[in-house]
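Write out this protein's structure.
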Amino acid sequence: MTDPDDPIPSEVVSPADDPLAALGGAGGFDLGSMMQMAQDMTAKMGEAQAQLAATEVEGTAGGGLVKVTLNGHLHLTDVAIDPSAVDPDDPSILEDLILAAWTDAHEEVARLQAQADPLGGLGGGLGGLGGLLGGG
């Protein structure tokens, strides 16, 4: 028999139906486990950020006439320009080559950042929440 003062009768929600039961603990919620998960994710993020900072990616344009190097945080660390790429009468060609080389390197860094994200995109959105709560 159900208690009229109970907002959710026990027959309606069983421990097997509790969406937080996967987290363990009394009532299906273990704060200690959640805190440990958060600490583990923070440590993984720190490791991934350090690894990205140490990574250098080269972008090229014009068949290698212009090369730029970016680290994993998109900081420009080097530029190399072949003298034959310099046309004093038309500097816009060189400008376009530098921009293309930077874009090439930027796309590679973005790909590496996506691979290195231990939260599965959580840092840039909510894409990783499914795995966080045991679903997805």
